[in-house]
Amino acid sequence: MFSRDNWDEILEALSANWFRTVLTAFGVLWGIFILVILLAAGKGLENGVKQGFGGMATNSMFMWTQVTSKPYKGLPKGRRYNFKIDDVAAIKREVPNMRFVSPRNQLGGFGGGNNVTRGLNTGAFNVYGDYPEIIQQEPMDITSGRFINYSDINDKRKVAVIGEGVRTTLYEPGEEVLGSYIKVSGVNFMVIGTYKKKGNNGNAEENQKQIYVPFTAFSQAFNMGNNVGWMAITAQDGSSITNLKGDVIEVIKTRHSIHPEDDRAVGNFDLFEEFNKINGLFVALKGVAYFVGILVLLSGIIGISNIMLIVVKERTNEIGVRRALGATPWAIRGQILMESIFLTIISGMAGIVLATGVIALVNKALSGMDTSEMMFLNPSVNLGVVITALAILIISGLLAGLIPAQNAIKIKPVDALRTE
Questions:
Q1: Which of 207, 214, 234, 280 is the most exposed, fewest CB within 10 Å of its CB?
Q2: Buried b or exposed e, range 315-335, using 16+ CB within 10 angstroms
Q3: Is the pTM of this model over 0.90?
């Protein structure tokens, strides 16, 4: 559509006053640079926060018992109760789309005393009685040995999987761990594996100082009977635990004679709901990034539009001659629009290249650091963002050249030729 002469004319027009052109183009360059950097920074923050979940099954909830707040069926207000192991089967049976329902018991806790010993070494650790499914709800890397399995559950084996933090506290460097024994509140457990927790949630070091033993062995060793301290419940993919939470709680209320309107008796934490709030925050941040970036870009576009108005004014005689020689209004308009789009795209692409370079430098710096406990990780933009930026540039170039192009075709050939 445009010959080489047209492109030569575009380059000549833009290079006639190159300093003015560069200053004008910088506004677009800076706008697209800010847009890409803001989006990359938002993605880096999102990656860091999601790393904190450590691959945890986010479609999950945690549930525990609390004191009843309403009397019901002759039972008083303020009554305490315990989950039972049969509640697990009831939830799986009566609530559809359950993936995991894991009963859990626990020794230790925040501020607890020393409860684990090995020889002369002692430590205060959280000790959990769990089923094998918990490793899929709270993923961890098994660094040696294995995790607990259903043979351990069925045989009530007194075995334990310890974190790397426990290993550091109770064992000498290089000392063999597998097959050794630790004593938990006076009961011996054989170590069958070690793990390292994934993610960072502000307690990365503490997460490595936990001990997992079979639920049945825990109940037998510490006289828990069929009581369950709390549960970790995960829904099937495609089903929201938030939507199923009411049904789960209803099963518990029915089985333990709790008033249907007693909302305090069953404590719960909906991880899926909190995860969705975080996702909503990052969607909002992305919207803010686009809003701010486009506003900055708009200021550059206004600059280009002003310069094109000046260019049209300077080329009044030329436009008059071209009109006198038979150039159509569309030809004049197209020439001005092409100059505007060309300047916008070149400056915008320079901004994208500059932003990409900055992002690459940041990623290179992060690659030499331990990012396991950082809330910022791998800032990046995907191909969709680049395509969106290019679309914004093309539209911006059209808008920037529209008014100058309209002014150009309004010039009458006779008036243009008279202009000095």
A1: 280
A2: bbeebbebbeeebeeeebbbb
A3: no
